[in-house]
Amino acid sequence: MVHVQRTFTLNRPRDEVVAYLADFANAEEWDPGTVSCDPITQGPVEVGSQWRNVSSLAGSKTELTYTLTTLDADRVVLTGVNKTATSVDDIRVADRGAVSEVTYDATVTFNGLAKLAAPLMQVLFLYLGVKTEKQMKRAISRA
User: Which of 110, 93, 77 is nearest to 8 (CA)?
Assistant: First the structure.
């Protein structure tokens, strides 16, 4: 299992931040590993909405199907699944007056032989966590 958590503030209202992050197609802008993220379901973004996400990590591409599993006024949870791994992005957004405080909590659980790569992937994900924070701040500031 790999786990990364980052907490930072944004100069945007909580409802705007939550709406932006709930639409996982925006991951192309804020997630440095995402190559493409295309909607599978049509219509408004709501619990049950799905996306096909292609990511590149350490030179290897992988595809996961992500589902919006939680959407509250202060929380977005997206769960990605393929035969090798389950990825859960649990994002909490707290209203702190003039700013929003974002806690981005990513957990990847590997299946089968992929579990052997977890220690190496933890190091990679810690590095990506720093990049994700920076990219997310830039992307949401422009949104």
Answer: 93
Domains for the chain: give ranges and CATH numbers.
Answer: 2-142 (3.30.530.20)
Tell me the one-letter amino acid at 124: L
Q: What burial class does residue 135 get, using C-beta atoms within 10 Å of its C-beta: 0-12 exposed, 13-18 middle, 19+ buried?
A: middle
38/50 Cα distance (integer angstroms):
9
Per-residue confidence in pLDDT tens, the chain, 143 aa: 788 899 999 999 999 999 999 999 999 999 988 999 999 999 999 999 999 999 987 778 999 999 999 999 999 999 999 998 999 999 999 999 889 999 999 998 988 655 555 555 555 555 566 677 888 888 888 86
- Whole-angstrom Cα distance, residue 87 to residue 90? 10
Q: What is the pTM of this model?
A: 0.88
The residues near 63 (Cβ < 8 Å, ≥ 6 apart) are: 52, 53, 54, 55, 82
Question: For helices 118-142 and 14-22, what crossing angle results, to 10°?
Answer: 120
Distance CA 15, CA 78 (A): 17
